[in-house]
Design goal:
10% helix, mainly beta
Amino acid sequence: MKKNHLKSIIASFIIILSFTIHSCSKDDDIIATIPLVGIAQDPDNFKGEVTNGQVVTLDPMKTYTLNGTVKVKNGGKLVIPAGTRIVATVGAESYILVEQGGQIYANGTAGSPVLFTSETEAAGSWGGLVICGKAPINTGNSGSSEIGNSAYGGTETTDNSGSLSFVRIEYAGADFASNKKFNGLSLFGIGNGTKVENVAVIHSADDGIQIYGGNVTVSNIVSIGNTNHAFSYTDGWVGAASNIYTKRKDDGTGNNGIKGINNANNNNASPRSNPTIQNVTFIGGTTGESDGIKLGQGTYAVLDNIVLSDWETGINIESDSTVARFNGKKRITNALFQNTTTEVSLKSSAGADVPIVDTTYTIKSDAAGAGNGILTPAWAAGWSGL
């Protein structure tokens, strides 16, 4: 009886193993049989347009050399499978722009992320990734992106520009005009039908991620070693962000963990920036910008489960309307400040100090922030470069 039982177990194992091998082979065959069309056909010279009605799927077995600009036009789709590497070569001329109505699907895995990088491992060696959508902004019915003069904004809150998942962007932020740089990832008027999660921006020469209006939700964001702000928003962003881990450059320089405003020219423009930001860790340094979080120029927000370490001021809130929104309202909760001289500062539009009502924020001595206090959160390990 024992011998027969053992034979049954072995037979079952062989069947399962055979099925697994067959399944893997079948998946590989599917990937291998996707026809390479358009700009996917020449990996050594990756540039050009994905046109209306065209679906361009890259070959994950190849490295794509970004020798110029890729534009995903209205009605076009660019699909970048797990494990694909895109290596930029020509500075500010190397960037990817997704126009309104275009879509990008860059979906990696924790073990096989999609990588955008440069042949030169230095900040500002190429442009970055720019996506323009049709969601509301507060600078008019529509706007034009600084990069590519691409239209963005509109009325479609559920607009879908595609999906970014397990994506790493390195060494972006090249100068494209006098005193103007690319961000690692720029989201212009992006709707909540767009998926942005598990995205790391490393060693950009400007902001890691900047959001211009829209109502996109982002999660599991890593922003490390960027020269300017790790994460910034403006122009009426009313989305949400959760699980953000940021850290300054190794020399301690750089700007804010988060910089948020409503509108630079009209603090009370509508829709007003009013994101919900929770489960975040911001690590500062010895020099550079003094504020871990800087909110002003009319922005609202809700902040929860915040860990700030090594800042002169943890949270700086400026401008009359932003101060009035926060002061005494408990819209900052479960905050932990480590090695921080001033926890929270309030300033009027004229720059005068505003007394803080004691119910402005609450402390939580064991706040986890992005998941592991000041240490790398488990969800970021590996794929993000940490």
